[in-house]
Amino acid sequence: MKERLILVTVIFENVLKEEIVELFLKHKTTGFTLSRVDGQGSRGVRASEFEGPNLKIESVVSREIADAVLEAIAEKYFEDYSVIAWDCEVNVLRGRKFSP
Amino acid sequence: MKERLILVTVIFENVLKEEIVELFLKHKTTGFTLSRVDGQGSRGVRASEFEGPNLKIESVVSREIADAVLEAIAEKYFEDYSVIAWDCEVNVLRGRKFSP
Amino acid sequence: MKERLILVTVIFENVLKEEIVELFLKHKTTGFTLSRVDGQGSRGVRASEFEGPNLKIESVVSREIADAVLEAIAEKYFEDYSVIAWDCEVNVLRGRKFSP
After folding, report:
1. Is the per-residue pLDDT at B43 higher than 90?
2. How many whole angstroms separate alpha carbon C39 and alpha carbon C59?
3. Is the minimum CB–CB distance between C81 and chain B shorter than 8 Å?
4. What ipTM was predicted for this assembly?
């Protein structure tokens, strides 16, 4: 009843919301959640202040889609934005909902 | 000092809040957190719109409890609701707080 | 392009916010996010009520830093506060941002 899939998590600046959501949709992810987080990154200067509201997007996808999404995010945003992205393996209860 | 336990995560519609919390309590989970997330699922129609506020519940439990909770959720809600559920292994600092 | 690192998660009472953030900064974590969660713990009494807003801090760090942070949290807060802490391995896209 469970399927081993990948939970992709990306934390990014509010200003990227529409682009990142678009990027997830374009890669055939079939669902995701967005939540607001306050963050503090590693970009010097405001080292002791919060950078203010960021967003976190999470999506459970196949390994293939996870890699494609993360690669696209690295290419587009890592140079110029405070973006953090990771994945980890999870056991999903209704796997068929997420697989292609 | 650490114990290998299971982090159970379930994302569900607001309307199920009381029932899902009840379900977690009934299975002897000793703690959980709830947070609001915005979600977009795979239920067609509103493919380019957000479905609005959902809830995410997270709880660290034994393998046995994790399986019982997830099975109960699948049975009760997967047919009629947009519910997503997964688990993954975590190393918990104060394991005894979660174990039976 | 990915690096195996540790996602540290700590859930704690609002009153500890400044101290916990300070503790993360002191351990050379280079970024973290904070989000509000509602929680219910295992401290008896209010078993059927929510304990109200807690905070969740998440940070991706090296194994060494993860252990140091978690040990410090256990020492300082486990006796007197409702603190829950765990870690799990994740594959971070831009690892160099987090490593020393």
Report:
1. no
2. 20
3. no
4. 0.83
